[in-house]
Every structure is written in C-alpha cells, then in structure tokens.
Amino acid sequence: MSDASINTQVNGGEAGFRDYFALLKPRVMSLVVFTAAVGLLAAPGGVHPFVAFCAVLFIAVGGGASGALNMWWDADIDQVMKRTTSRPIPSGKVTGQEALAIGLTLSVFACVMLWLATNIVAGALLAFTIFFYAVVYTIWLKRWTPQNIVIGGAAGAFPPMIGWAAVTGGVSVESVLMFMLIFMWTPPHFWALALFMNSDYEKAGVPMLTVTHGRRVTRNHILVYTILLAPLAIGTAFTSIGGPIYLTVSVILNVLFLLGALKLWRRNEDQAQVDKYRLEKSFFGLSLMYLFLHFGAILAEAALKPYGLGGW
C-alpha cells in the first residue's frame, strides 16, 4: 500500500458530509441493502417491522464500513485508475487515517448492534463478511491472484444470508442458494467490466484476468461461468423462495445472459475496438439487471405468498 493512503490531506479542500458518505461506497451499499432486505423478507417466520428496519440498516452500515476500509487500503490504486481518482482519499478530501478510523468504528458498531437487534448468528456473519472483504479480498487476494474476483465475490454474496439469519437465527438451503446466485454472478459481471477497463487495471498493477491472461481467456471464462450460473439460478425456482414468477423471470434472464456471453465469446479484439467495446458494456449493464430482477422476483414471491399467490 502506498503512503498516499495514510498521508495528511492534499489540497482538496475541507471534507463535507458527501465526502465521508462516499467513503461508504453508496452504490455498492445499495446492492447490499437490497439483497439483504430480500433475504430477510423471504425468510420464514418474519420479524417485527422495526426489527427488520434495524437489521437492514446495520447490515448497510457494515457494508459501508467495508467500503471505507477498502478505500483506505486501495488509496494508491485509486490514484492511478481513471474511474476512482475522484474518490475522497485520492482527491484529498479525506485522509487515510480518517477512512481507517471510520471503517473500524462502523464495523464494530454495525456487528454489535445487529447482534443485539437480532441474534448472534447474524452479527457473526456480518463480522465475517467485513473481515473477508477488507482483509481476505482487499489486502490479500486483489493484488495477488487473477482469481481475486472469483474468491472475493463471496464478500458481496453474504448480505441475503445475513438477512435470512436475522430472522431465522441460522443458515438454510435457500439462503445458501441466494449466496451462490451472487457468488457465481460476480465473475462474469466484473470480468465484463475488466474487458473495457483493462488499461486501468494494467496501470494500477491489479492482476485481473484480462491483465494476466488476456481478453481472449477472459471471454472464455465469462462464457463458462454464465453456463454454470444458469442451472443454479433457474433451479432456485423450485425451492421455498421460488415460484412461477421467479421461474419465468429467471428463464428469460438466463437465456439473455447466455446469448450475451456467447456474443462476447465470439468477438475478437479488433471487432471490440472498432465499436469501443459496445457489446461488453451492454453485457455489463445486463448483468446488473440480471441480479436485480432475480432478487426482485424472490421478493415478489415472498410478498404474494401470504395471499396464496406466491410460491408453488
């Protein structure tokens, strides 16, 4: 890690609320909040609305804490990469010490409060998630192996499992399937991004698959993971969190995702450069919709179930 991550503020002006909030990676946090809420609402039994609100809030705070710790450690990389130079630390609005202090404080607060509001299993899962993202992925895997996204994807896959545990106090097949849905989706999602942002990763020295093995191998991997993801995603329709709505949505999305991955696989770099990676950017956008609609379908099944309309 560069000294830039722990230096005092550069000439970037005083930090405001927006700068400190940006440390928490609000875009990533929004995905954490959504998938955690779906896991909580799909879980059997249910909890009081206020407890549910508190659980999702503390999971969101924990996700934000992970983001702050990630920005603290990756400040040197963020200074180099075009899409991250405006982040609070590289822009000089927030110091590395502040980011570290905020990340650690919020981590302890979120885990303890989630434990007190729900149960120790949910609190422990949140603590492990923060540790996995901040230490296993950010500090170890990200700069060490091209499999960083594959293994590190587990960190982003835990929120629905935590939401489920907040209600049930445990882990089940359904919560594991929600975890696996995100876990298997993460590599093709981020590798699609790496295809058109490869120069950023090269400059920063991050061993993304596109950097270490090239775009051709990356396209092969995207196709393989998309093929493996499809039966997992569709198969979830036949569990207690699935139903006809989820099945319909999943079949359509996986056909589109497979066709998109196949188009990427057939492309060569000359074609991609001519249209400035138009298909790769389109596939990346589709991947965002893919995850959102799958979890939206799980939520719809859960919402309709009390009326006898959701599920099988």
From TrEMBL:
GO BP annotations listed: heme O biosynthetic process
Major place of residence: membrane
Pfam families in the cross-refs: UbiA
Gene Ontology annotations for the cellular component aspect, listed alphabetically: plasma membrane
Transmembrane regions listed in the UniProt entry: 28-44, 50-73, 94-116, 122-141, 148-167, 179-201, 222-239, 245-262, 283-304
Protein localization: Cell membrane
Group of enzyme by EC: transferase
Keywords: Cell membrane, Heme biosynthesis, Membrane, Transferase, Transmembrane, Transmembrane helix
Annotated pathway: Porphyrin-containing compound metabolism; heme O biosynthesis; heme O from protoheme: step 1/1
Catalysed conversion reaction: heme b + (2E,6E)-farnesyl diphosphate + H2O = Fe(II)-heme o + diphosphate
One of the record's GO molecular function terms: protoheme IX farnesyltransferase activity
Entry membrane topology: Multi-pass membrane protein
E.C. no: 2.5.1.141
Function comment: Converts heme B (protoheme IX) to heme O by substitution of the vinyl group on carbon 2 of heme B porphyrin ring with a hydroxyethyl farnesyl side group.
Family: Belongs to the UbiA prenyltransferase family. Protoheme IX farnesyltransferase subfamily.
PANTHER family on file: 4-HYDROXYBENZOATE SOLANESYLTRANSFERASE, PROTOHEME IX FARNESYLTRANSFERASE, MITOCHONDRIAL
Further remarks about this protein from its record: Carbon 2 of the heme B porphyrin ring is defined according to the Fischer nomenclature.
Subunit structure: Interacts with CtaA.
Full protein name: Protoheme IX farnesyltransferase
Organism: Thalassobius vesicularis
Lineage of source species: Bacteria, Pseudomonadati, Pseudomonadota, Alphaproteobacteria, Rhodobacterales
